[in-house]
């Protein structure tokens, strides 16, 4: 009994010593931070702090958030993203993409407790954020890392910043159909649903802080415009031959207008209106950036890689997949097909993107995965992947779509490929193949 009491007394003393030690350390640290002469980092000049913060923000928004969390002075000296996440383009999370969970875990599923996962295309970092708004919304697109949401009943459009929670409201998409009817374009109720599910968006903000959006409507071969101050969407009075591919870039929407037969494809740029009168914008034809000869590329897809625009397609020549810079076509120099994109991997399929393979296991570097060509190029029921270096085809995973259920466990590359088909985001399923409906569920 004496030994027990002695041990208890010794334990209490040790706890007291630890407590005093921690308290003393904390007080000494507080004094150092309060004294600029003893705290070099906390005493950085405001101009230097702003310079470092701007460079960190240019790389990644979440790194900027961590930078502001270092100390109170750094936090006070730099602007807070919350409240400005949408209206200030500097705070757009451009490298972030919503991650498809699979297993039927759609965004807003009760099992996720309101959490939605995101991953960084460059660093492979994963984060989970609370987004309860998915209970009655569907995801249409992810321009600049922002989530383009459609209300399931009213079709109202919301642009959500996933990390700050900032939201801006746009008119219901259903408001576009009366405008199309005035142009002689009448659409059935069933087709209305289809035409508002497949859109590509670009976001821009003017000096007054008004957020504008341009939507590419691939099923209608048109684009539409609205700002946060509008009550309806305004479609263009002109239409393209075939809106094949679209991509937001620099606040504008770049589209590939595919010609018929041997006609060259046109790369078009659609800007938001410079004034507040959308009616004048609707009649202005798009700006043609460059044409792409059919002998160079047929049915080209557009993708952004390393802050440049590229075209991906085939030319029926010795190379089944060709990757060229848009800048080369624009400058009139011979467009030489690229044979290396380093550690990058490109995914083509509805929505196109490039990711860094070094940070994402099971993603092959210097490759192009053709999500839209499931079941054809690399064998029956496979997901084909083209190696730019040696010009060979392979399949992304072992097994075949058509022979039964998808092989489990799903590799990370299959989740990444699913990002190219936005409908899977809303279903909580992983990219699969169904012989009845083509691209289907797992």
From TrEMBL:
Q: Which InterPro entries match?
A: KIB1-4_b-propeller (IPR005174)
Chain ranges of the KIB1-4 beta-propeller domain = 118-371
What highest taxon heads this organism's lineage?
A: Eukaryota
The record's section on Pfam families has: Beta-prop_KIB1-4
Region entry Disordered, spans: 1-23
Q: What's the protein here called? A: Predicted protein
